[in-house]
């Protein structure tokens, strides 16, 4: 049974750990609101369509839920999260929308599984990124799929893989504290922390994080976060690499909707990543 004292100690340990991780970030108070957690991966984009959950009804529904796990259980699995598909981000490549490059008359990808009327309606509601890609939330995309009869669960949409990028929004309460709990896989409590045994050795974080994490009083939490603060080389095989607010591979998508990067992690050879982002009011 968890006591009030144990809960208080855990909350205090988390607050101290997050302060150490966010020391250089444009974050603010942990109780501040307007923060989101996003997850994306190259593997997700490569094999996403056709997909049984990518229906207009699912994208319009604001209720969070789990998605099918394509990888099986492993430490730091994003499939433990519930996702908010209505507020997830969908980026359409500019060549796909303009029917140029591989999608042009002489290209190998066409024809597109939608027409110019869909493109016009999409552009009317979408944000535009620096490369002229169109970025919409799931709730904005849903009525367009219905109106134009675009079926992301159908075989014709398989060709959209890599050309329609999905940046999934993790369901949180909007506070920085809850965003950091989700992003660091600590939201399920101390009994779900990753241990050195899970990775076959004593974890060591890259600098400056190893030094900063020494201030974390909770030993198991400290070791858990060390595995999320490894060097890029070490994170290729185990754990994650923490880049703070410096870089995230999918920032072009979140930038398009006015997001500000607060904290980011890369996994593997940066094929997958998670980020805490501050969103505009």
List the helices and strands and how they pair.
Elements: H1 4-21, E1 35-41, H2 42-47, H3 56-60, E2 89-92, H4 94-98, H5 116-125, E3 127-128, E4 134-137, H6 138-148, E5 164-170, H7 176-183, H8 196-199, H9 209-213, H10 219-226, H11 232-235, E6 240-244, H12 251-256, E7 260-267, E8 272-278
Antiparallel strand pairs: 1-5, 1-8, 2-4, 2-5, 3-4, 6-7, 7-8
Helix pairs in contact: 5-6
Task: Give structural attributes.
alpha+beta, 8 strands, 281 residues, single chain, eight-stranded antiparallel beta sheet, 12 helices
Protein described:
The protein is 32% helix and 16% strand. By secondary structure, it is an alpha+beta fold. It has one domain. The chain has an eight-stranded antiparallel sheet. Helix 5 (116-125) runs antiparallel to helix 6 (138-148). It is elongated, with a radius of gyration of 20 Å. The model has no long low-confidence stretch (mean pLDDT 91).
Quick rundown:
It is built from 12 helices and 8 strands. By secondary structure, it is an alpha+beta fold. A hairpin with a 5-residue loop joins β3 (127-128) and β4.
Would you count the extended β strands for me? 8
Any idea how many domains? 1
Q: Termini, distance in Å? A: 40 Å
Regions with pLDDT < 50 over 5+ consecutive residues?
none
The percentage helix is 25-40%
- Listing every helix as H and every strand as E from the N terminus to the C terminus, the arrangement reads HEHHEHHEEHEHHHHHEHEE
Please compute the radius of gyration using only Cα atoms.
20 Å
